[in-house]
Amino acid sequence: MEKFWVMVYKDTNQVRAFFPGGGIDIADDDPNWKLYKDVPKYDYITKGKNYLYYNPDTKSYYKSNEGKFEDIRVKRDQLLKDSDYTQLPDSSYPSTQDAWKTYRQQLRDITKGVTDPDTITFPEEPK
Questions:
Q1: Would 126 be classed as within a structural domain?
Q2: CA angle (84, 68, 9) in 5-degree steps
Q3: Is the same domain home to 47 and 74?
Q4: What is the count of structural domains for the chain?
Q5: Whose CA is closest to 61, among 119, 118, 18?
């Protein structure tokens, strides 16, 4: 398994940067961040704000709830885009148009009143 170095903010363990293991020389005496060597590679980095954190005890990564909600919204938005055509007047799904409308409303409401993103279940597409 390819190993990397991960730089995290000392006060939160929020990931600041990844580096190929041994690929560069970094001083790890900065008071604001800590460098962990030989950690597993993490393949998914969110665009924009970083919601990724590192647990040095288990050598594993985790996302904040804010990051999980962001992932849910991104998936929801894509599912809505993918089903836009079902609501057009000349849709090839006129008999299930109401079911699609309900499905799309369930997607829009998926995070309403939810405080724990791990409890969210996406609705099934109509058949």
A1: no
A2: 140
A3: no
A4: 2
A5: 18
- Cβ pair 59, 39 in contact under 8 A: yes
Residue 18 · residue 42 · CB < 8 Å:
yes
Q: Are residues 16 and 59 in the same domain?
A: yes
Question: Is 104 among the domain residues?
Answer: yes
Residues 43 and 95 reside in one and the same domain: no
Residue 49: pLDDT above 80? no
| Rounded CA separation 26/18 (Å) | 12
If 0-12 CB within 10 Å is exposed, 13-18 middle and 19+ buried, where does residue 42 land?
Answer: middle
pLDDT digits (tens, 9 = 90+) for 62-105: 888 988 998 899 999 999 999 998 988 887 767 888 999 999 99
Q: Are residues 44 and 11 in the same domain?
A: yes
In terms of DSSP bridges, do strands 15-20 and 52-55 run parallel, antiparallel, or are they unpaired?
A: unpaired
Predicted local confidence at residue 52, as pLDDT: 84
Domain limits for position 23: 3-63
The CB density around residue 78, as the number of other CB atoms within 10 Å, is: 11
Task: List the structure tokens of 72.
Answer: 């849910």
